[in-house]
């Protein structure tokens, strides 16, 4: 089902004088929501900004016409349109009569999460932060489809307000093969989360808008059972989450700790400090700053610890456009305390030890590979998908050639367990002085990590 057909279904439920105007509007594909309030002119909100749709004032008859054409409003004052992703929210007066409607356009957009596909393949739990309307629900809907269809995971969506899979007993095709469990009342969401794990054996659970302490506790319980979580919550950045007591347990919780005199002196801090209580339920956090600009915290535990010490950690910024050009940059440290130097030194040490470990595992013998981006790579893939390798290298902007002749290769990339068994290949590579890089597992994440290391 294309986005245009879905939008037409929403427009067809509006009063006639609004249908004509919207059907002819040049920017209708960029429509975010339609606001209809009694005694006011109807308003459309586009990505570029709001504008009035008509000079006519909305009457009781206009509101009544639309409310009778959508599904029944729930206790949360939300309704939908059958087999679509649109959400209709109502405002009531003191007599509980509906005197205002907000019609939010729901679209299933494909390809929106290619910028974080490597994070999905890492099998870590992911929390998505962002203010209302920035597109969190659209992102997790696409994540559900990719995990279920392309990665063949058992995915269950906890669809409390029917925004992810639509207002129908049959889920919208935008979630792919993922299954969804509807929630009768918002206050029962945490029970349905636990029921999904106990009854349906999922590998991944997707939750939209985690907001209460019971839901946070349920998320922690699910994470401890080894199920991958993908969730969203309101908040602009990691700092908002740390300072929000009900939600802080998602990233390990915060507590006051009293240090001894010697320890406080060694750290150069006060005796009473804030520290993280436990291991985070979500290991990766994505902050949606804008629709095409995301900040990534790949190690939430480390990011929270550094923030509580008064330092901001290094965070990735991933930017992408409709032309599918993805840019990955890093935020640098901001100096807030004198302990910054120690923190940076320890991070550098750990980074060097990680690189040294990679070198010892992969037996790197040729330092020429550190300038890979400046020349064309000739790669001999061994037991690695050529299509996957092409996808990673193209997205990272490398010039490359895949070859079937070892003698022409400038490097070999292969699966570790298969390389160990092929003595002929390893001896020939040694003879021709061709470096071999081995991977423990074939995935987008592992290959991109290897390429990043070679260019560091």
From TrEMBL:
<dbReference type="InterPro" id="IPR003593">
    <property type="entry name" value="AAA+_ATPase"/>
</dbReference>
<keyword id="KW-0934">Plastid</keyword>
<dbReference type="GO" id="GO:0005524">
    <property type="term" value="F:ATP binding"/>
</dbReference>
<dbReference type="InterPro" id="IPR027417">
    <property type="entry name" value="P-loop_NTPase"/>
</dbReference>
<keyword id="KW-0067">ATP-binding</keyword>
<keyword id="KW-0150">Chloroplast</keyword>
<keyword id="KW-0547">Nucleotide-binding</keyword>
<dbReference type="Pfam" id="PF25516">
    <property type="entry name" value="PTPase"/>
</dbReference>
<dbReference type="InterPro" id="IPR058670">
    <property type="entry name" value="PTPase_dom"/>
</dbReference>
<dbReference type="Pfam" id="PF19568">
    <property type="entry name" value="Spore_III_AA"/>
</dbReference>
<dbReference type="InterPro" id="IPR045735">
    <property type="entry name" value="Spore_III_AA_AAA+_ATPase"/>
</dbReference>
<protein>
    <recommendedName>
        <fullName>AAA+ ATPase domain-containing protein</fullName>
    </recommendedName>
</protein>
<feature type="domain" description="AAA+ ATPase">
    <location>
        <begin position="122"/>
        <end position="261"/>
    </location>
</feature>
């Amino acid at each position: 089902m294309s986005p245009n057909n879905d939008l037409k279904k929403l427009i067809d439920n509006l009063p006639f004088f609004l249908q004509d105007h919207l059907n002819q509007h040049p920017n209708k594909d960029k429509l975010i929501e339609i606001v209809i309030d009694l005694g006011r002119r109807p308003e459309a909100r586009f990505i570029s900004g709001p504008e009035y749709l008509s000079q006519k004032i909305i009457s009781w008859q206009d509101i009544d016409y639309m409310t009778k054409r959508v599904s029944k409003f729930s206790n949360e004052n939300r309704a939908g349109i059958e087999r679509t992703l649109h959400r209709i929210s109502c405002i009531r007066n003191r007599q509980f009569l509906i005197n205002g409607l907000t019609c939010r356009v729901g679209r299933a957009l494909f390809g929106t999460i290619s910028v974080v596909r490597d994070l999905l393949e890492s099998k870590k739990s992911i929390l998505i932060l962002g203010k209302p309307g920035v597109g969190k629900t659209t992102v997790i809907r696409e994540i559900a489809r990719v995990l279920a269809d392309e990665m063949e995971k058992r995915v269950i969506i906890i669809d409390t307000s029917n925004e992810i899979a639509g207002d129908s007993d049959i889920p919208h095709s935008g979630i792919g093969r993922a299954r969804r469990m509807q929630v009768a009342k918002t206050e029962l969401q945490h029970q349905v989360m636990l029921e999904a794990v106990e009854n349906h054996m999922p590998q991944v659970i997707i939750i939209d808008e985690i907001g209460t302490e019971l839901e946070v506790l349920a998320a922690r319980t699910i994470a401890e059972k080894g199920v991958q979580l993908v969730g969203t919550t309101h908040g602009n950045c990691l700092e908002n989450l740390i300072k929000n007591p009900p939600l802080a347990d998602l990233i390990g919780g915060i507590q006051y700790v009293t240090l001894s005199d010697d320890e406080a002196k060694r750290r150069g801090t006060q005796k009473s400090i804030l520290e993280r209580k436990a291991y985070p339920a979500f290991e990766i956090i994505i902050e949606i700053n804008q629709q095409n600009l995301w900040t990534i915290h790949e190690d939430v535990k480390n990011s929270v610890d550094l923030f509580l010490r008064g330092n901001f950690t290094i965070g990735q910024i991933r930017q992408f456009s409709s032309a599918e050009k993805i840019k990955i940059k890093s935020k640098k440290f901001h100096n807030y305390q004198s302990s910054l130097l120690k923190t940076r030194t320890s991070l550098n040490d750990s980074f060097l030890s990680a690189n040294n470990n990679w070198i010892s595992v992969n037996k790197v013998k040729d330092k020429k590979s550190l300038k890979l981006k400046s020349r064309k790579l000739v790669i001999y893939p061994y037991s690695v998908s050529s299509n996957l390798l092409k996808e990673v290298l193209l997205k990272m902007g490398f010039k490359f050639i895949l070859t079937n002749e070892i003698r022409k290769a400038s490097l070999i990339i292969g699966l570790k367990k298969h390389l160990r068994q092929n003595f002929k290949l390893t001896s020939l590579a040694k003879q021709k002085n061709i470096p071999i890089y081995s991977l423990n597992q074939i995935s987008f994440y592992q290959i991109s990590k290897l390429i990043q290391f070679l260019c560091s």
